[in-house]
């Protein structure tokens, strides 16, 4: 996959994408990230990328021209074809007003060959970029950042780790939080359980007793069936506590329903 990032702060990306799985994926040639400095596409002495908003109001707005000019030489397929889904390319404007960036969207994007990520700054980006240049606007959460750079890094990292070969162990991506699993497919080893859209179950490592805080006994006894059930219970419990909104979208087994019922009863009585 090729990812092009359009920004007024190209140096920003020296750090965040140069570690761990993203770095390894780049070294393996699974992803190639190219950062484009928007100022190189300006035509005035001051290399102006922003201007005052029409209609008045606070702050400055990123001008459309450098952004259109930056994308022009990238050799992208026409927007109509991208929108029709005939090109494996997507031009994305990072925006607080965008549709939520979720694990599902990350999985969608991971199937493409090319991503272009446009980072806004100041009060935002001239709306013609969203209307005529970008295919979609994505938001990484319901809060306002000062720029799209962190958001673009989030998107690149979440997508890159889903590229085939990026993780050492493919099963681990499929049993993580938010990952909907279809048809109860069996993955991993006998003691793990697929997230199926729930939050991940808790993980522990050595020592078994850390300063008087023991690892749950069940994880040490070697009974895979029991471990699996325990993990599913904890995943259901944590999802119910921290993200009850997710439960609705999960295909619950009869056993899941019984577990949830038990957790709810326990919570009511305590
Ligand atoms: N005036 C805008 C915020 C502009 S913040 C508003 O109220 O919606 C400046 C830039 O930061 C945006 O253009 C966008 O690129 C980026 N940004 C801010 N919050 C973001 C979010 N939650 N997700 C993705 N990008 C965001």
What does this structure look like?
The chain has 270 residues and is α/β, with parallel strands linked by helices. It is built from 10 helices and 9 strands. A 5-stranded parallel sheet has the order 2-1-6-5-7, sandwiched between helices. Strands 3-4 form a two-stranded antiparallel sheet. It has a two-stranded antiparallel sheet with strand order 8-9. Helix 4 (103-110) links the parallel strand 5 (89-100) and strand 6. Helix 4 (103-110) packs across helix 6 and helix 8 (224-242) packs across helix 10. It is elongated and about 70 Å long. The N and C termini lie far apart (51 Å). 28% of the residues are buried. The model is unreliable at 182-186 (pLDDT under 50). The structure holds S-adenosyl-L-homocysteine. Residues 94-97, 119-121, 123-125, 139-141, 143-145, 147-148, 151 line the site of S-adenosyl-L-homocysteine (SAH). S-adenosyl-L-homocysteine (SAH) binds at residues 94-97, 119-121, 123-125, 139-141, 143-145, 147-148, 151.
């Amino acid at each position: 996959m090729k990812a092009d990032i359009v920004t007024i702060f190209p140096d920003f990306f020296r750090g965040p994408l140069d570690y761990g799985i993203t770095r390894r994926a780049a070294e393996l040639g699974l992803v190639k990230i190219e950062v484009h400095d928007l100022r190189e596409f300006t035509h005035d002495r001051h290399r102006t990328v922003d201007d005052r908003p029409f209609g008045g109001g606070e702050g400055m707005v990123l001008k459309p021209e450098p952004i259109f000019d930056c994308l022009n030489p990238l050799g992208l397929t026409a927007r109509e074809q991208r929108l029709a889904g005939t090109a494996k390319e997507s031009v994305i404007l990072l925006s607080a007003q965008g549709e939520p960036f979720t694990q599902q969207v990350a999985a969608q994007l991971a199937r493409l060959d090319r991503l272009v990520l446009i980072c806004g700054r100041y009060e935002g980006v001239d709306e013609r970029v969203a209307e005529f240049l970008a295919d979609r606007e994505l938001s990484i959460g319901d809060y306002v950042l000062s720029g799209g750079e962190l958001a673009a890094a989030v998107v690149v990292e979440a997508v890159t780790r889903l590229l085939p070969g990026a993780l050492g162990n493919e099963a681990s991506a499929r049993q993580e939080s938010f990952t909907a699993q279809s048809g109860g497919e069996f993955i991993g080893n006998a003691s793990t359980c697929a997230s199926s859209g729930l939050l991940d179950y808790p993980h522990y490592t050595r020592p078994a007793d850390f300063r008087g805080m023991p690892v749950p006994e069940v994880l040490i006894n070697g009974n895979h069936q029991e471990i699996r059930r325990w993990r599913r219970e904890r995943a259901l419990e944590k999802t119910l506590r921290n993200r009850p909104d997710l439960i609705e979208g999960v295909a619950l087994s009869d056993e899941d329903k019984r577990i949830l019922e038990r957790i709810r009863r326990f919570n009511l009585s305590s």
